[in-house]
Design goal:
Elements (H helix, E strand, L loop, with lengths): L2 H15 L11 E2 L8 E3 L1 H9 L3 H12 L5 E7 L3 E6 L1 H13 L11 E5 L14 H16 L3 E5 L8 H12 L2 H6 L1 H15 L2 H15 L3 H24 L14 H13 L4 E3 L2 E4 L14 E4 L7 H16 L3 E7 L3 H13 L8 E6 L2 E2 L15 H19 L5 H21 L7 E2 L2 H4 L7 H17 L14 H11 L1 H10 L3 H21 L7 H25 L8
Parallel strand pairs: 5-6, 5-10, 10-11, 12-13
Antiparallel strand pairs: 1-2, 2-4, 3-4, 7-8, 8-9
Helix pairs in contact: 1-3, 2-3, 4-18, 4-21, 6-8, 6-9, 9-10, 11-12, 12-13, 14-15, 17-20, 17-21, 18-20, 18-21, 19-20, 20-21
This protein binds arginine.
Length: 567
Protein backbone atom coordinates (compact mmCIF):
# COMPACT_ATOMS: atom_id res chain seq x y z
CA UNK A 1 0.00 0.00 0.00
CA UNK A 2 1.22 3.50 -0.79
CA UNK A 3 1.56 5.97 2.07
CA UNK A 4 -1.10 8.11 0.41
CA UNK A 5 -3.52 5.17 0.63
CA UNK A 6 -2.78 4.78 4.32
CA UNK A 7 -3.44 8.48 4.87
CA UNK A 8 -6.61 8.41 2.80
CA UNK A 9 -7.82 5.56 4.99
CA UNK A 10 -6.97 7.62 8.05
CA UNK A 11 -9.00 10.60 6.89
CA UNK A 12 -11.80 8.25 5.90
CA UNK A 13 -11.83 6.85 9.42
CA UNK A 14 -12.16 10.34 10.84
CA UNK A 15 -15.03 11.04 8.45
CA UNK A 16 -16.79 7.83 9.43
CA UNK A 17 -16.33 8.65 13.10
CA UNK A 18 -17.80 12.14 12.68
CA UNK A 19 -21.26 10.66 12.31
CA UNK A 20 -22.22 12.52 9.15
CA UNK A 21 -23.35 9.40 7.36
CA UNK A 22 -21.56 7.35 4.77
CA UNK A 23 -19.37 9.37 2.45
CA UNK A 24 -16.46 8.05 0.36
CA UNK A 25 -13.74 10.66 0.19
CA UNK A 26 -11.31 11.28 -2.66
CA UNK A 27 -7.72 10.13 -2.18
CA UNK A 28 -5.34 12.57 -0.53
CA UNK A 29 -2.87 14.25 -2.88
CA UNK A 30 0.80 15.12 -2.43
CA UNK A 31 1.18 18.85 -1.80
CA UNK A 32 3.23 21.04 -4.09
CA UNK A 33 4.59 23.26 -1.38
CA UNK A 34 6.41 21.43 1.43
CA UNK A 35 5.27 24.11 3.88
CA UNK A 36 1.78 22.67 3.52
CA UNK A 37 2.88 19.29 4.74
CA UNK A 38 3.25 16.24 2.54
CA UNK A 39 -0.34 15.43 1.63
CA UNK A 40 -3.57 17.32 1.39
CA UNK A 41 -7.24 16.39 1.50
CA UNK A 42 -10.05 18.55 0.17
CA UNK A 43 -12.81 16.32 1.48
CA UNK A 44 -14.20 19.00 3.80
CA UNK A 45 -15.71 20.88 0.86
CA UNK A 46 -17.90 17.99 -0.15
CA UNK A 47 -18.66 17.10 3.45
CA UNK A 48 -19.83 20.54 4.41
CA UNK A 49 -23.35 19.80 3.13
CA UNK A 50 -23.94 16.58 5.09
CA UNK A 51 -22.14 18.01 8.11
CA UNK A 52 -24.23 21.18 7.93
CA UNK A 53 -21.27 23.34 8.71
CA UNK A 54 -18.73 25.46 6.85
CA UNK A 55 -15.93 23.46 5.16
CA UNK A 56 -13.44 24.99 7.57
CA UNK A 57 -15.42 23.80 10.57
CA UNK A 58 -15.84 20.32 9.13
CA UNK A 59 -12.08 20.25 8.47
CA UNK A 60 -11.48 21.39 12.05
CA UNK A 61 -13.51 18.53 13.41
CA UNK A 62 -11.62 16.00 11.31
CA UNK A 63 -8.29 17.51 12.27
CA UNK A 64 -9.13 17.16 15.96
CA UNK A 65 -10.00 13.51 15.68
CA UNK A 66 -6.80 12.76 13.75
CA UNK A 67 -4.43 14.83 15.83
CA UNK A 68 -3.32 12.01 18.09
CA UNK A 69 -2.41 9.62 15.33
CA UNK A 70 1.28 8.63 15.47
CA UNK A 71 1.67 8.85 11.67
CA UNK A 72 0.88 12.54 11.78
CA UNK A 73 3.09 15.21 13.21
CA UNK A 74 0.22 17.66 12.94
CA UNK A 75 -2.85 18.48 10.89
CA UNK A 76 -3.44 22.01 9.76
CA UNK A 77 -6.45 23.72 8.25
CA UNK A 78 -5.57 25.92 5.32
CA UNK A 79 -7.58 28.38 3.27
CA UNK A 80 -11.32 27.78 3.16
CA UNK A 81 -11.04 24.17 4.41
CA UNK A 82 -8.08 22.20 3.13
CA UNK A 83 -6.60 19.62 5.46
CA UNK A 84 -2.84 19.74 5.36
CA UNK A 85 -1.25 16.57 6.64
CA UNK A 86 2.23 16.91 8.09
CA UNK A 87 3.48 13.34 8.24
CA UNK A 88 5.77 12.19 11.03
CA UNK A 89 9.29 11.42 9.82
CA UNK A 90 9.10 7.83 11.03
CA UNK A 91 5.87 7.34 9.06
CA UNK A 92 7.56 8.68 5.92
CA UNK A 93 10.35 6.13 6.21
CA UNK A 94 7.95 3.33 7.12
CA UNK A 95 5.73 4.32 4.20
CA UNK A 96 8.63 4.15 1.80
CA UNK A 97 9.65 0.74 3.14
CA UNK A 98 6.12 -0.48 2.57
CA UNK A 99 6.03 1.00 -0.92
CA UNK A 100 9.27 -0.75 -1.81
CA UNK A 101 8.06 -4.06 -0.43
CA UNK A 102 5.32 -3.95 -3.05
CA UNK A 103 6.39 -5.23 -6.46
CA UNK A 104 4.33 -2.44 -8.03
CA UNK A 105 5.89 0.23 -5.82
CA UNK A 106 2.50 1.22 -4.43
CA UNK A 107 0.74 1.54 -7.78
CA UNK A 108 -2.87 0.41 -7.48
CA UNK A 109 -3.76 -2.54 -9.69
CA UNK A 110 -6.47 -2.26 -12.33
CA UNK A 111 -8.46 -4.87 -14.16
CA UNK A 112 -9.51 -5.38 -17.72
CA UNK A 113 -7.92 -5.65 -21.12
CA UNK A 114 -6.38 -2.76 -23.03
CA UNK A 115 -5.50 -3.14 -26.69
CA UNK A 116 -2.60 -0.95 -27.79
CA UNK A 117 -2.08 -0.48 -31.51
CA UNK A 118 1.40 0.89 -32.11
CA UNK A 119 4.42 0.92 -34.39
CA UNK A 120 2.28 -0.44 -37.28
CA UNK A 121 4.60 0.25 -40.21
CA UNK A 122 3.69 -0.45 -43.80
CA UNK A 123 5.50 -3.48 -45.18
CA UNK A 124 7.93 -3.83 -48.09
CA UNK A 125 9.82 -0.80 -46.89
CA UNK A 126 12.40 -0.45 -44.20
CA UNK A 127 11.46 1.18 -40.95
CA UNK A 128 12.53 4.78 -40.97
CA UNK A 129 12.73 7.66 -38.53
CA UNK A 130 9.03 8.33 -39.02
CA UNK A 131 8.25 5.04 -37.25
CA UNK A 132 10.25 5.80 -34.16
CA UNK A 133 7.78 7.77 -32.10
CA UNK A 134 4.84 5.40 -32.45
CA UNK A 135 7.14 2.52 -31.56
CA UNK A 136 8.75 4.20 -28.56
CA UNK A 137 5.66 5.89 -27.11
CA UNK A 138 3.54 2.82 -27.78
CA UNK A 139 6.04 0.54 -26.05
CA UNK A 140 6.12 2.82 -23.00
CA UNK A 141 2.32 2.88 -22.77
CA UNK A 142 2.32 -0.87 -23.21
CA UNK A 143 4.69 -1.38 -20.28
CA UNK A 144 2.91 1.19 -18.12
CA UNK A 145 -0.48 -0.44 -18.63
CA UNK A 146 0.87 -3.87 -17.80
CA UNK A 147 2.49 -2.47 -14.68
CA UNK A 148 -0.87 -1.01 -13.65
CA UNK A 149 -2.38 -4.49 -13.80
CA UNK A 150 -4.19 -4.27 -17.12
CA UNK A 151 -4.07 -7.21 -19.42
CA UNK A 152 -2.45 -5.68 -22.48
CA UNK A 153 -2.76 -6.87 -26.05
CA UNK A 154 -0.03 -5.16 -28.05
CA UNK A 155 -1.15 -5.34 -31.67
CA UNK A 156 1.19 -4.33 -34.47
CA UNK A 157 -1.32 -3.26 -37.12
CA UNK A 158 1.06 -3.45 -40.05
CA UNK A 159 0.04 -2.10 -43.45
CA UNK A 160 0.25 -5.38 -45.35
CA UNK A 161 -2.50 -4.93 -47.92
CA UNK A 162 -3.30 -2.45 -50.65
CA UNK A 163 -2.37 -1.19 -54.07
CA UNK A 164 1.38 -1.08 -53.34
CA UNK A 165 1.51 -4.85 -53.80
CA UNK A 166 0.32 -4.73 -57.41
CA UNK A 167 3.08 -2.23 -58.11
CA UNK A 168 5.66 -4.35 -56.34
CA UNK A 169 4.66 -7.43 -58.30
CA UNK A 170 5.02 -5.59 -61.63
CA UNK A 171 8.33 -4.12 -60.52
CA UNK A 172 9.48 -7.57 -59.37
CA UNK A 173 8.79 -9.06 -62.78
CA UNK A 174 10.47 -6.18 -64.62
CA UNK A 175 13.51 -5.31 -62.57
CA UNK A 176 14.33 -7.80 -59.82
CA UNK A 177 18.04 -8.32 -59.30
CA UNK A 178 18.17 -11.84 -57.86
CA UNK A 179 21.62 -11.51 -56.38
CA UNK A 180 20.64 -8.17 -54.87
CA UNK A 181 17.57 -9.75 -53.31
CA UNK A 182 19.65 -12.61 -51.95
CA UNK A 183 22.06 -10.22 -50.30
CA UNK A 184 19.64 -7.62 -48.99
CA UNK A 185 16.02 -8.62 -49.53
CA UNK A 186 14.29 -5.57 -48.16
CA UNK A 187 16.80 -3.23 -49.75
CA UNK A 188 16.04 -4.78 -53.13
CA UNK A 189 12.28 -4.53 -52.60
CA UNK A 190 12.69 -0.90 -51.67
CA UNK A 191 14.83 -0.30 -54.75
CA UNK A 192 12.33 -1.72 -57.21
CA UNK A 193 9.44 0.00 -55.47
CA UNK A 194 11.16 3.37 -55.73
CA UNK A 195 12.03 2.63 -59.35
CA UNK A 196 8.38 1.89 -60.05
CA UNK A 197 7.36 5.24 -58.60
CA UNK A 198 9.92 6.96 -60.81
CA UNK A 199 9.86 4.99 -64.03
CA UNK A 200 6.59 3.11 -64.45
CA UNK A 201 4.67 4.08 -67.58
CA UNK A 202 0.90 3.94 -68.09
CA UNK A 203 0.99 0.33 -69.19
CA UNK A 204 2.86 -0.72 -66.06
CA UNK A 205 0.48 1.22 -63.86
CA UNK A 206 -2.47 -0.44 -65.54
CA UNK A 207 -0.79 -3.82 -65.06
CA UNK A 208 -0.25 -3.01 -61.38
CA UNK A 209 -3.99 -2.53 -60.94
CA UNK A 210 -4.58 -5.90 -62.60
CA UNK A 211 -2.06 -7.57 -60.27
CA UNK A 212 -3.61 -5.97 -57.20
CA UNK A 213 -7.04 -7.22 -58.26
CA UNK A 214 -5.58 -10.70 -58.89
CA UNK A 215 -3.98 -10.72 -55.48
CA UNK A 216 -7.24 -9.72 -53.86
CA UNK A 217 -9.06 -12.43 -55.78
CA UNK A 218 -6.67 -14.99 -54.31
CA UNK A 219 -4.37 -15.64 -57.27
CA UNK A 220 -1.82 -18.18 -56.13
CA UNK A 221 1.33 -16.72 -57.61
CA UNK A 222 0.54 -13.22 -56.41
CA UNK A 223 -0.35 -14.48 -52.95
CA UNK A 224 2.98 -16.33 -52.84
CA UNK A 225 4.91 -13.20 -53.77
CA UNK A 226 2.93 -11.14 -51.29
CA UNK A 227 3.76 -13.59 -48.48
CA UNK A 228 7.42 -13.34 -49.40
CA UNK A 229 7.31 -9.56 -49.24
CA UNK A 230 5.78 -9.76 -45.80
CA UNK A 231 8.23 -12.33 -44.49
CA UNK A 232 11.14 -10.23 -45.62
CA UNK A 233 9.66 -7.12 -44.01
CA UNK A 234 8.86 -8.85 -40.74
CA UNK A 235 12.42 -10.10 -40.49
CA UNK A 236 13.66 -6.55 -40.82
CA UNK A 237 11.12 -5.20 -38.30
CA UNK A 238 11.80 -7.95 -35.78
CA UNK A 239 15.50 -7.21 -35.82
CA UNK A 240 14.73 -3.66 -34.77
CA UNK A 241 12.10 -4.64 -32.20
CA UNK A 242 14.53 -7.10 -30.63
CA UNK A 243 17.14 -4.46 -30.40
CA UNK A 244 14.65 -2.20 -28.67
CA UNK A 245 13.25 -4.93 -26.36
CA UNK A 246 9.81 -4.69 -27.92
CA UNK A 247 7.46 -7.63 -28.28
CA UNK A 248 3.98 -7.65 -29.74
CA UNK A 249 1.32 -10.10 -28.64
CA UNK A 250 -0.19 -10.19 -32.10
CA UNK A 251 0.59 -8.78 -35.51
CA UNK A 252 -2.77 -8.74 -37.18
CA UNK A 253 -2.10 -6.50 -40.11
CA UNK A 254 -4.66 -4.97 -42.39
CA UNK A 255 -4.86 -8.14 -44.47
CA UNK A 256 -6.28 -10.02 -41.50
CA UNK A 257 -9.56 -8.19 -42.01
CA UNK A 258 -10.00 -8.70 -45.77
CA UNK A 259 -12.87 -11.10 -45.66
CA UNK A 260 -14.72 -9.06 -43.10
CA UNK A 261 -14.77 -5.81 -45.09
CA UNK A 262 -17.57 -6.25 -47.62
CA UNK A 263 -20.03 -7.95 -45.25
CA UNK A 264 -19.28 -5.20 -42.74
CA UNK A 265 -20.12 -2.45 -45.22
CA UNK A 266 -23.38 -4.24 -46.10
CA UNK A 267 -24.19 -4.54 -42.43
CA UNK A 268 -23.52 -0.88 -41.73
CA UNK A 269 -25.72 0.04 -44.70
CA UNK A 270 -28.49 -2.21 -43.44
CA UNK A 271 -28.30 -0.60 -40.02
CA UNK A 272 -28.82 2.78 -41.67
CA UNK A 273 -25.55 4.16 -40.30
CA UNK A 274 -24.04 4.37 -43.82
CA UNK A 275 -25.62 5.65 -47.02
CA UNK A 276 -24.92 5.80 -50.73
CA UNK A 277 -23.32 8.89 -52.17
CA UNK A 278 -22.44 9.11 -55.87
CA UNK A 279 -22.11 5.36 -56.12
CA UNK A 280 -19.86 5.14 -53.04
CA UNK A 281 -20.84 4.19 -49.50
CA UNK A 282 -20.15 6.66 -46.71
CA UNK A 283 -20.90 7.16 -43.05
CA UNK A 284 -22.21 10.73 -42.86
CA UNK A 285 -21.71 12.87 -39.79
CA UNK A 286 -23.24 15.99 -38.36
CA UNK A 287 -21.55 18.56 -36.16
CA UNK A 288 -23.03 16.74 -33.17
CA UNK A 289 -20.84 13.71 -33.88
CA UNK A 290 -17.74 15.61 -32.89
CA UNK A 291 -15.27 18.32 -33.62
CA UNK A 292 -14.64 18.90 -37.31
CA UNK A 293 -16.79 15.98 -38.42
CA UNK A 294 -19.74 17.89 -39.88
CA UNK A 295 -18.57 18.11 -43.43
CA UNK A 296 -16.39 15.05 -43.91
CA UNK A 297 -18.13 11.70 -44.21
CA UNK A 298 -16.11 8.52 -43.76
CA UNK A 299 -15.74 6.69 -47.06
CA UNK A 300 -16.06 2.95 -46.51
CA UNK A 301 -16.58 1.65 -50.07
CA UNK A 302 -15.50 3.33 -53.25
CA UNK A 303 -17.72 3.43 -56.33
CA UNK A 304 -15.58 0.63 -57.83
CA UNK A 305 -16.31 -1.55 -54.82
CA UNK A 306 -12.94 -1.21 -53.11
CA UNK A 307 -12.69 -0.98 -49.34
CA UNK A 308 -10.45 1.59 -47.66
CA UNK A 309 -8.24 2.30 -44.63
CA UNK A 310 -11.32 3.38 -42.64
CA UNK A 311 -13.20 0.21 -43.54
CA UNK A 312 -10.32 -1.88 -42.23
CA UNK A 313 -10.17 0.14 -39.05
CA UNK A 314 -13.88 -0.37 -38.41
CA UNK A 315 -13.47 -4.10 -38.96
CA UNK A 316 -10.51 -4.01 -36.57
CA UNK A 317 -12.56 -2.36 -33.82
CA UNK A 318 -15.28 -5.00 -34.21
CA UNK A 319 -12.75 -7.83 -34.19
CA UNK A 320 -10.96 -6.58 -31.09
CA UNK A 321 -14.21 -6.15 -29.19
CA UNK A 322 -15.27 -9.70 -30.02
CA UNK A 323 -11.87 -11.22 -29.40
CA UNK A 324 -10.74 -9.52 -26.19
CA UNK A 325 -13.64 -7.43 -24.84
CA UNK A 326 -11.22 -4.64 -23.96
CA UNK A 327 -12.10 -1.74 -21.66
CA UNK A 328 -9.99 0.51 -23.88
CA UNK A 329 -8.19 0.60 -27.19
CA UNK A 330 -5.30 2.97 -27.75
CA UNK A 331 -3.93 3.97 -31.13
CA UNK A 332 -0.53 5.58 -31.29
CA UNK A 333 0.09 7.51 -34.53
CA UNK A 334 1.22 10.94 -35.54
CA UNK A 335 -0.93 14.05 -35.56
CA UNK A 336 -1.69 13.87 -39.28
CA UNK A 337 -4.12 10.99 -38.82
CA UNK A 338 -6.35 12.77 -36.33
CA UNK A 339 -9.29 13.19 -38.69
CA UNK A 340 -9.18 9.55 -39.72
CA UNK A 341 -9.37 8.41 -36.11
CA UNK A 342 -12.09 10.87 -35.20
CA UNK A 343 -14.12 9.57 -38.10
CA UNK A 344 -14.01 5.88 -37.42
CA UNK A 345 -14.31 6.45 -33.66
CA UNK A 346 -17.52 8.39 -34.33
CA UNK A 347 -18.74 5.69 -36.72
CA UNK A 348 -18.08 3.01 -34.07
CA UNK A 349 -20.13 5.01 -31.64
CA UNK A 350 -23.01 5.43 -34.08
CA UNK A 351 -22.97 1.67 -34.50
CA UNK A 352 -23.39 1.33 -30.76
CA UNK A 353 -20.15 -0.63 -30.44
CA UNK A 354 -18.31 1.63 -28.01
CA UNK A 355 -18.96 4.27 -25.41
CA UNK A 356 -17.22 7.61 -25.06
CA UNK A 357 -13.54 7.38 -24.22
CA UNK A 358 -13.19 3.67 -25.04
CA UNK A 359 -11.24 4.45 -28.18
CA UNK A 360 -8.34 6.81 -27.72
CA UNK A 361 -6.09 8.26 -30.34
CA UNK A 362 -2.80 9.00 -28.62
CA UNK A 363 -1.37 11.25 -31.29
CA UNK A 364 2.07 12.77 -31.30
CA UNK A 365 3.97 15.56 -33.03
CA UNK A 366 6.66 15.20 -35.62
CA UNK A 367 10.28 14.28 -35.09
CA UNK A 368 13.08 16.04 -36.87
CA UNK A 369 16.81 15.79 -37.00
CA UNK A 370 18.93 18.86 -37.49
CA UNK A 371 21.09 19.14 -40.62
CA UNK A 372 24.21 17.01 -40.34
CA UNK A 373 22.82 14.82 -37.56
CA UNK A 374 23.71 11.67 -39.45
CA UNK A 375 27.28 11.08 -40.43
CA UNK A 376 26.53 8.62 -43.23
CA UNK A 377 23.24 9.68 -44.64
CA UNK A 378 22.16 7.72 -47.71
CA UNK A 379 19.12 8.84 -49.69
CA UNK A 380 16.63 11.19 -48.15
CA UNK A 381 14.81 8.86 -45.79
CA UNK A 382 16.71 8.13 -42.61
CA UNK A 383 16.41 4.50 -41.67
CA UNK A 384 15.65 3.59 -38.12
CA UNK A 385 18.56 1.19 -38.05
CA UNK A 386 20.97 3.93 -39.13
CA UNK A 387 19.57 6.26 -36.50
CA UNK A 388 20.12 3.68 -33.75
CA UNK A 389 23.61 2.88 -35.06
CA UNK A 390 24.50 6.55 -35.05
CA UNK A 391 23.23 6.93 -31.48
CA UNK A 392 25.19 3.90 -30.32
CA UNK A 393 28.40 5.03 -31.98
CA UNK A 394 28.09 8.47 -30.41
CA UNK A 395 27.31 6.87 -27.05
CA UNK A 396 30.39 4.72 -27.51
CA UNK A 397 32.58 7.79 -27.65
CA UNK A 398 31.05 9.06 -24.41
CA UNK A 399 31.37 5.69 -22.69
CA UNK A 400 34.97 5.18 -23.80
CA UNK A 401 35.74 8.45 -22.15
CA UNK A 402 33.74 8.04 -18.93
CA UNK A 403 34.20 4.30 -18.41
CA UNK A 404 37.67 3.69 -19.79
CA UNK A 405 38.35 1.38 -16.83
CA UNK A 406 35.80 -1.20 -18.04
CA UNK A 407 36.61 -4.01 -20.48
CA UNK A 408 35.92 -3.50 -24.17
CA UNK A 409 33.01 -5.91 -24.36
CA UNK A 410 31.19 -4.30 -21.48
CA UNK A 411 31.72 -0.83 -22.93
CA UNK A 412 30.11 -1.98 -26.16
CA UNK A 413 27.07 -3.28 -24.27
CA UNK A 414 26.85 -0.07 -22.26
CA UNK A 415 27.03 2.01 -25.42
CA UNK A 416 24.22 -0.01 -27.00
CA UNK A 417 22.01 0.52 -23.93
CA UNK A 418 22.93 4.18 -23.53
CA UNK A 419 22.59 5.05 -27.22
CA UNK A 420 19.20 3.44 -27.68
CA UNK A 421 18.11 4.61 -24.23
CA UNK A 422 19.08 8.17 -25.14
CA UNK A 423 17.02 8.04 -28.34
CA UNK A 424 14.00 6.70 -26.50
CA UNK A 425 14.33 9.16 -23.67
CA UNK A 426 14.78 12.19 -25.94
CA UNK A 427 11.46 11.22 -27.51
CA UNK A 428 9.60 10.24 -24.33
CA UNK A 429 10.72 13.17 -22.19
CA UNK A 430 8.78 15.61 -24.37
CA UNK A 431 5.06 16.08 -24.20
CA UNK A 432 3.99 13.63 -26.93
CA UNK A 433 1.97 16.29 -28.68
CA UNK A 434 4.87 18.66 -29.22
CA UNK A 435 7.37 18.30 -32.02
CA UNK A 436 10.75 16.85 -31.14
CA UNK A 437 14.16 17.70 -32.51
CA UNK A 438 17.02 15.36 -31.77
CA UNK A 439 20.25 16.97 -30.71
CA UNK A 440 22.89 14.38 -30.04
CA UNK A 441 25.04 16.36 -27.64
CA UNK A 442 22.09 17.27 -25.50
CA UNK A 443 20.51 13.82 -25.38
CA UNK A 444 23.80 12.10 -24.61
CA UNK A 445 24.85 14.56 -21.92
CA UNK A 446 25.75 13.01 -18.57
CA UNK A 447 23.92 15.79 -16.77
CA UNK A 448 20.49 17.18 -17.49
CA UNK A 449 17.21 15.48 -18.25
CA UNK A 450 18.71 12.61 -20.24
CA UNK A 451 18.84 8.84 -20.24
CA UNK A 452 22.60 8.77 -19.53
CA UNK A 453 22.12 10.91 -16.42
CA UNK A 454 19.37 8.68 -15.06
CA UNK A 455 21.22 5.50 -15.96
CA UNK A 456 24.35 6.86 -14.35
CA UNK A 457 22.48 7.84 -11.17
CA UNK A 458 21.15 4.32 -10.90
CA UNK A 459 24.57 2.77 -11.54
CA UNK A 460 25.93 5.06 -8.84
CA UNK A 461 23.51 3.63 -6.28
CA UNK A 462 24.52 0.13 -7.32
CA UNK A 463 28.17 0.96 -7.02
CA UNK A 464 27.70 2.29 -3.47
CA UNK A 465 25.91 -0.94 -2.62
CA UNK A 466 28.66 -3.08 -4.11
CA UNK A 467 31.32 -1.17 -2.28
CA UNK A 468 29.54 -1.46 1.08
CA UNK A 469 28.37 -5.01 0.34
CA UNK A 470 24.87 -3.88 1.20
CA UNK A 471 21.96 -6.27 1.13
CA UNK A 472 19.61 -4.07 -0.87
CA UNK A 473 17.01 -3.82 1.85
CA UNK A 474 14.66 -0.91 2.45
CA UNK A 475 14.05 -0.95 6.19
CA UNK A 476 11.54 1.21 8.04
CA UNK A 477 13.75 4.22 8.77
CA UNK A 478 13.45 7.76 10.03
CA UNK A 479 14.75 10.52 7.77
CA UNK A 480 16.23 13.29 9.88
CA UNK A 481 18.30 15.61 7.71
CA UNK A 482 16.44 17.88 5.24
CA UNK A 483 18.01 16.16 2.21
CA UNK A 484 17.06 12.74 3.56
CA UNK A 485 13.50 13.92 4.01
CA UNK A 486 13.44 15.52 0.58
CA UNK A 487 14.52 12.31 -1.14
CA UNK A 488 12.13 10.20 0.94
CA UNK A 489 9.20 12.40 0.02
CA UNK A 490 10.18 12.45 -3.62
CA UNK A 491 10.26 8.65 -3.74
CA UNK A 492 6.89 8.44 -2.03
CA UNK A 493 5.35 10.36 -4.91
CA UNK A 494 5.95 7.58 -7.39
CA UNK A 495 2.44 6.04 -7.34
CA UNK A 496 0.66 9.37 -7.86
CA UNK A 497 3.00 10.48 -10.62
CA UNK A 498 2.64 7.14 -12.32
CA UNK A 499 -1.16 7.32 -12.18
CA UNK A 500 -1.24 10.78 -13.75
CA UNK A 501 1.21 9.80 -16.47
CA UNK A 502 -0.85 6.69 -17.20
CA UNK A 503 -4.24 8.32 -17.33
CA UNK A 504 -3.03 11.18 -19.50
CA UNK A 505 -0.92 8.92 -21.76
CA UNK A 506 2.10 11.09 -21.06
CA UNK A 507 5.28 9.15 -20.30
CA UNK A 508 7.04 12.51 -20.15
CA UNK A 509 5.53 13.06 -16.69
CA UNK A 510 7.32 9.94 -15.54
CA UNK A 511 10.54 11.22 -17.15
CA UNK A 512 10.27 14.57 -15.35
CA UNK A 513 9.74 12.75 -12.10
CA UNK A 514 12.71 10.40 -12.53
CA UNK A 515 14.85 13.43 -13.29
CA UNK A 516 13.70 15.02 -10.00
CA UNK A 517 14.52 11.79 -8.15
CA UNK A 518 17.99 11.61 -9.67
CA UNK A 519 18.67 15.23 -8.76
CA UNK A 520 17.45 14.70 -5.19
CA UNK A 521 19.71 11.66 -4.96
CA UNK A 522 22.69 13.66 -6.10
CA UNK A 523 22.01 16.48 -3.66
CA UNK A 524 21.66 13.95 -0.86
CA UNK A 525 24.77 12.05 -1.80
CA UNK A 526 26.89 15.18 -2.21
CA UNK A 527 26.07 16.16 1.35
CA UNK A 528 25.86 12.90 3.30
CA UNK A 529 28.07 9.89 3.77
CA UNK A 530 26.31 6.59 3.37
CA UNK A 531 28.81 3.85 4.05
CA UNK A 532 30.56 5.64 6.90
CA UNK A 533 27.33 6.36 8.70
CA UNK A 534 26.36 4.34 11.75
CA UNK A 535 23.30 3.07 13.55
CA UNK A 536 19.93 4.56 12.57
CA UNK A 537 21.59 7.02 10.23
CA UNK A 538 23.12 4.17 8.30
CA UNK A 539 19.81 2.35 8.12
CA UNK A 540 18.19 5.51 6.78
CA UNK A 541 20.81 6.22 4.17
CA UNK A 542 21.34 2.72 2.88
CA UNK A 543 17.58 2.31 2.65
CA UNK A 544 17.33 5.52 0.67
CA UNK A 545 19.99 4.33 -1.76
CA UNK A 546 18.11 1.09 -2.39
CA UNK A 547 14.71 2.78 -2.62
CA UNK A 548 16.09 5.29 -5.13
CA UNK A 549 17.70 2.56 -7.19
CA UNK A 550 14.53 0.53 -7.27
CA UNK A 551 12.45 3.53 -8.29
CA UNK A 552 14.87 4.57 -11.04
CA UNK A 553 15.19 1.02 -12.27
CA UNK A 554 11.45 0.53 -12.38
CA UNK A 555 10.89 3.91 -14.00
CA UNK A 556 13.51 3.36 -16.68
CA UNK A 557 12.11 -0.11 -17.29
CA UNK A 558 8.66 1.35 -17.91
CA UNK A 559 10.18 3.64 -20.50
CA UNK A 560 11.91 0.68 -22.14
CA UNK A 561 15.38 1.72 -21.05
CA UNK A 562 17.82 -0.91 -19.83
CA UNK A 563 19.15 -0.54 -16.34
CA UNK A 564 22.88 -1.03 -15.96
CA UNK A 565 24.60 -2.20 -12.81
CA UNK A 566 27.62 -0.12 -13.62
CA UNK A 567 28.77 2.32 -16.24
N1 LIG B 1 0.12 1.68 -41.10
C1 LIG B 1 -0.31 3.01 -40.72
C2 LIG B 1 0.73 4.02 -41.15
O1 LIG B 1 1.86 3.65 -41.41
C3 LIG B 1 -0.55 3.16 -39.25
C4 LIG B 1 -1.64 2.27 -38.70
C5 LIG B 1 -2.14 2.77 -37.38
N2 LIG B 1 -3.17 1.93 -36.83
C6 LIG B 1 -4.42 1.87 -37.27
N3 LIG B 1 -5.23 1.02 -36.70
N4 LIG B 1 -4.86 2.66 -38.20
O2 LIG B 1 0.43 5.20 -41.22
Amino acid sequence: MALSDTLTALVQEAVDAAGWGEVRIDPVQPTRNPEHGEYQSNCAFRLSKVARMKPRDAAQKLAESMSEHPALERVEIAGPGFLNLHVAASALGAGLAEQCADEHLGVGQREGCVVIDYSSPNVAKRMHVGHLRSTVIGAALDRMHRFAGFEVVADNHIGDWGTQFGKLIVAWDAWLDEAGFEADPIGELERIYVKFAQDADDAMNAQARVETARLQAGDERNLGLWKRFIDVSMKEFEGLYDRMDIRFDVTYGESHYNDALQPLVDDILAKGVAEESKGAIVVPFTKKDGKGLGDTPLLIRKADGAALYGTTDLATVRFRLDEWAPVKMLYVTDTRQQLHFRQFFAASKKLGWVSDGMLEHVWFGLLSLPEGAMSSRKGNVIRLKDLLDEAVSRARAVVDHSSSHLPEEERAAIAEAVGIGAVRYADLSQNPQSNVTFEWDRMLAMDGNTAPFLMYSLARCRSIQRKGELSGEVAAFTPVEPLERELTKMLLKFPEVFDTALSSYRPNMLCDYLFQVAKALNRFYAEHRVLDAEGDTRVCRTSLVEATARTLEQGLGLLGIRALERM
